[in-house]
Amino acid sequence: MEVGYDRVQEVKKFDESKIGVKGLSDLGITEIPKFFVHPPETLSDLKSSSNCTGIPIIDLSDINSDRPKIVEQIRDAAKTWGFFQVINHGVPNTVLEDTIGAIKAFHEQPVEAKAKHYIREEGRGVMYTSNNDLYRSKAACWHDSLQVWMSPEPAKAEDIPAVCRREVVEWDHHAKKVAEAVMGLLAEGLGLGAGKFKELTFSDARVFVGHCYPYCPQPDLTVGITSHTDPGIVTVLLQNQIQGLQVRHGEEWVDVKPLPGGLIINIGDFLQIVSNGEYRSVQHRVLANSNKDSRISIVMFFNLAKWKGSGYYGPLPELLTPQKPAIYRDFTMQEFDQNFYGKGLDSKSLIDKIKL
C-alpha cells in the first residue's frame, strides 16, 4: 500500500457512509476502493479450471416412491461433493421468484431507505450491512447483505424491511420444509432414522441472508465472497440466474450454473463433525459480478438449537464403532461461536482444531 493510505480509516469511512457496495456501484465508480483489492494469491486462480459440468442434480419428485435411490444419491453427493442441487422440491416457482424479487427490491432502494437498517449486530434481529466480517477480514468483498434471524429467537416482524417482510417470513417456512426433507434423507444415508436430525434440533436455529452482488467495475481485483466453508448443519441457497458461485472439487474450482427452479444444498462443518467425517463441508466462493444486473442469492443457514449437557457437541455416538472411532473430539458452544465470530470467513478452521 502506498504511503499515507490509512486502510482502517478508509474502511471506517465506507462503513459509516452506510452506502454499501450497491451504492458505490450505482454511483458509477470505475475503480474499486483499495481495501476491496485481494492479494495476488487469491486473484491468480479465479477462472474455473474444471471441465466438470457442475454439482450433482437430485430430483426429489420420487422421494416417497423411490426413496432408497434418492438416499443413495444424496449420500454420495454429500460424501464426494458436499454440494448438490435439488429439483422438484415442492416449492412453487412463484414463491422462488417472489422471494428473489423482494430481496432485489430491498437492495435496489435508495441508500437513505436502506441506511436505517444498517447496523453491525450479527447474532440477533435484523442487520443490513456490507461484509459482516468487514473489520475482521484482510480484504473486503463485493457484496451487501440483509440478515434476519428466524429462529430460535425470531426478529420482530416490524424490524424486517417492509419491502420484503412477507417474502422473508414465507421463505423461512418453505426453506425449512425442504431442509427437513433433505436432512431426513441425509440421516438415512448414515443409517439413522429419518427423524433423527429434526429430533436433535438441527433445523431449529435459522438465519436468513439475502445477498446482493452488484456490478463490479474491476471484477478481476476482488471477489464477491471469499473462499469459505459454512459453519452449521446445512445451507439452502436460492439464487437468480446470474452465475458466480464456484465450488472446490478435488484440486479444481467448478462453476455452478443456476438451474431455473433449483435449490442448492450444501453441507456445513457441524454436519461433517456430527457425521464423523462421512459427509463433507466443502470450500466455495463467489466471483465479483461483471454483469450489469445484480446477482441475488438467498441463503438459509440451518444449525442446531439445543446443545448437549452443559453445551458441547461431537460425532454422534451411534455412528462410532471400534472399526470407526471418533475422528473429532467434542467441542463447546463457546469454541464454535468464537471460531466463527472471532475472525474473517474461512474454511474448516473448527474442523482442523478438533481433529483427533
Short précis:
Helices cover 30% and strands 20% of the residues.
Describe the SSE topology.
Layout: H1 7-17, H2 20-26, H3 40-43, E1 57-59, H4 67-80, E2 83-87, H5 93-107, H6 111-115, E3 126-129, E4 144-151, H7 165-189, H8 196-199, E5 205-213, E6 223-228, E7 234-239, E8 245-249, E9 252-255, E10 263-267, H9 269-274, E11 284-287, E12 295-303, E13 312-313, E14 331-332, H10 333-341, H11 349-354
Summarize the structure in words.
This protein is an alpha+beta fold. It has one domain (26-312): Sandwich (Jelly Rolls), CATH 2.60.120. The chain has eleven helices and 14 strands. It has an eight-stranded mixed sheet. Strand 1 (57-59), helix 4 (67-80) and strand 2 (83-87) form a beta-alpha-beta unit. The protein is globular and about 60 Å long. The termini are far apart. The relative contact order is 0.16. The model has no long low-confidence stretch (mean pLDDT 94).
